[in-house]
Every structure is written in C-alpha cells, then in structure tokens.
C-alpha cells in the first residue's frame, strides 16, 4: 500500500522522545490477531449495518484466532439515525470478536448536555439536534430560551433508554494493540502515550495532524475528515465523513497488512 507524502509547507510539532518509535510501514499486529477499525459513524446506521455484515463475512473467511472490532467514536449527531446506531452496536452478536467502543467528542458533548443543558447547549448546534430528533424529541434550532433548552434536555433524558446511558458512560478513551494506539481524535505529540489527557484524545486536531515524527506506536484515529483514508508515516486517519459522503470506512489490520475493507 502506498503512503501519502507529508505537506512540507505545514509547520511541524515534535513527538515525545522515547526509546522505541514505530512507523506505519513497520507497524505490526500480534501473531494471531486481526483488528477491524471503523471510523466516525455519525448516525448513519444505514451504512453501519451492511459494513458490519462485510466484517463478519471477512472475519469468518480469515478464521483468525483473535479478532477485534474497534469503533473510534462519534456514533451520534449529524446523521438521522443516532439512536439506531447505538441499538445496532448494543445488539451485536459477534461472540468470536472482542468489541472495543471508544469515546468521541460528540458522545462527550451529549453527556455534558444531559448533565447541564445550559452549559452544554452548543451541542444542539453542531449535530446534537439530529440526535435529539432520533429519540423522538421535536426540536427547532431557532431562537430558544434557557427554559426551552432545559425542556429539550428533560425530554431527551426521559426518552434515552437506560442501556444507551450505560453505553455512553462506559466508552473508553483509548486502546492499545500491538504497534497501534487507537484514539478518537489523536494524541498530544509532546506527551507520552501513558500521560495523554481526555481532552486531546477526543478533540485534538492541528498539533497532532502536523506532527511528522514517529510515536511510540502508530496512531489510528478519526475525527478529522478526509476524502479517503489518510496514511501518514506515524498515523492512519479513517474519518471519511460518512454523514455526508456516504462512505463509512473500515481499516483491517493483520500482521503488517493495513487494508481498507
């Protein structure tokens, strides 16, 4: 697989200096392990369901000893089927696969709104309105008062199934497997992987995207939309903007292979 060249015009950031650094070209999975990694879903259950079917078929074909399904976060917002996406994930029947569900900035924003609607009301304006509607709560993004926001939050809290609340509160910030580190947005380049902060794992963009140096592990991330999966020497980005592009990407990692399903 060919790797994209860096844009040398972009300012760079230094990575944390460690004894062992890994490049994409050399990164490998543990023997007997295969990982299927899905980028930002954003309410597109119509894309998720057929992709999961492809993954299950491919996994059975490979017959790998240890299979992993890793979801990079941002299950909700923007697309019209956020509730259905979470139902699909919770109803998965893949006993031969280890399921890892990472937290995304949109899930974090949804929980912030549910906890304090006035403080978290901005969520409604960058995709949260679609999520609210997916739970059957009417909403209009015109001028609304603080009381309007509180009422929307109250209705959403009532409409949110208990298992959805448990799911949202149980998402993990990162996951490590072999030479790979999985996080929704990326990492702070000048901080060791062990010391990464939630804010960076869920929200970071420019400093991470501009860093050209190798890390302790190759970073697999979503959050930053590209027209096609982005392969750099130190990271792989797989957010292909499913909510508007109709392309939901799955990266398959096995041995030294990095393939797009």
Explain what you see.
This protein is of the alpha/beta class and 261 residues long. The chain has a domain at 33-101 and 174-260: Purple Acid Phosphatase, chain A, domain 2. Helices cover 31% and strands 16% of the residues. It has 9 helices and 10 strands. The chain has helices spanning 45-62, 82-90, 105-115, 128-134, 146-159, 162-169, 198-203, 206-210, 242-245; strands spanning 33-38, 66-71, 97-101, 174-177, 180-183, 218-221, 230-231, 235-237, 250-254, 257-260. The strands form 2 sheets. Strands 3-2-1-9-10 form a 5-stranded mixed sheet, covered by helices on one side. It has a 5-stranded mixed sheet with strand order 4-5-6-8-7, with no helix packed on it. A hairpin with a 2-residue loop joins strand 4 (174-177) and strand 5. The longest helix is centred in the N-terminal third of the chain and has 18 residues, at 45-62. The protein starts with 32 loop residues before the first strand and ends with a strand. Residues 1-13 have low confidence and may be disordered.
Structural key phrases:
261 residues; globular; 5-stranded mixed sheet; alpha/beta; 9 helices; 31% helix; Purple Acid Phosphatase, chain A, domain 2; disordered N terminus
Briefly characterize the structure.
By secondary structure, this protein is an alpha/beta fold. It contains nine helices and ten strands.
Element layout with pairings:
Layout: E1 33-38, H1 45-62, E2 66-71, H2 82-90, E3 97-101, H3 105-115, H4 128-134, H5 146-159, H6 162-169, E4 174-177, E5 180-183, H7 198-203, H8 206-210, E6 218-221, E7 230-231, E8 235-237, H9 242-245, E9 250-254, E10 257-260
